[in-house]
Every structure is written in C-alpha cells, then in structure tokens.
Design a protein that fits this description.
single chain; 126 residues; mainly beta; Jelly Rolls; three-stranded antiparallel β-sheet; 1 helix; 10 strands; 3% helix; 48% strand
Length: 126
C-alpha cells in the first residue's frame, strides 16, 4: 500500500508564482503504471462511524484522498492508519476496505483508472 501525505510535502510554486501546489503525484509520474487505462470513476464518499467499506477488489488503480475524519485502510493483509491529507494508492485486484476510527465518520475523494481491457464492474455489489 502506498500512502502519501500532504503534511510531508513542501509546496512547489506554479502558474507564474501564483499557486502553491503540494504534489502527491507529480506530472506523468503514474503514466507508465496506468498506460492504456481509462478514467473509471471519480467520486466522494463517506463511511459512517461504526461502519466499514465492504472488502472488495476490482481491476482498477484506485486512489482515496482523505478529506476529513480518521480511519484504518486495509489492502490485502496490510493495515495503515489514514487521516486528512493522506492519499492512498490501491493497486488493481487487491482486496481493500476502509473503516473510520475515533468516533466519527471518514470522508474521502476517490478516483480510479481502469486497467486496459477490463470489463464492466458492478460497484453496487463489489
């Protein structure tokens, strides 16, 4: 599991010095990893206190950006605490889940890149 945190990054200044940028993935850094893929989905989601994302897998490169709350991310047999500012990378076909900790919900932004040639995924049951 690859977890990158905005708190560990120094901002870079872009757009003629008008915008500080905290890169969690530099331009073209993931090109080779996702070559031939496609944007599968982009969403926001929330897991309520006491809940958990059903353990599942799918043929996508998936990233969760933690916006608020704290949780524990599980990818295959590895567990890691996550908090606001963390970007979690989940490789294709690895079983993953997320559960909030600390008594509140966890709210994330998610985007996924489908693997070249992957079929349709039913996210309502996966």
């Amino acid at each position: 599991m690859d977890v990158r945190s905005i708190v560990d990054r120094e901002p870079e200044v872009e757009h003629n010095g008008t915008v500080p940028v905290w890169y969690l993935g530099h331009p073209r850094e993931i090109k080779e990893l996702t070559d031939g893929g496609f944007v599968e989905l982009i969403n926001e989601f929330e897991v309520a206190a006491g809940g958990a994302v059903f353990p599942h897998s799918h043929p996508t490169h998936e990233w969760y950006f933690v916006m608020s709350g704290r949780g524990v991310m599980t990818v295959d047999d590895e567990e890691r605490p996550v908090e606001p500012g963390d970007l979690v990378y989940i490789p294709p076909d690895q079983v993953h889940s997320l559960r909030p900790v600390g008594g509140g919900a966890i709210h994330c932004f998610c985007f996924a890149v489908g693997v070249k040639g992957a079929g349709v995924v039913d996210y309502k049951t996966h």
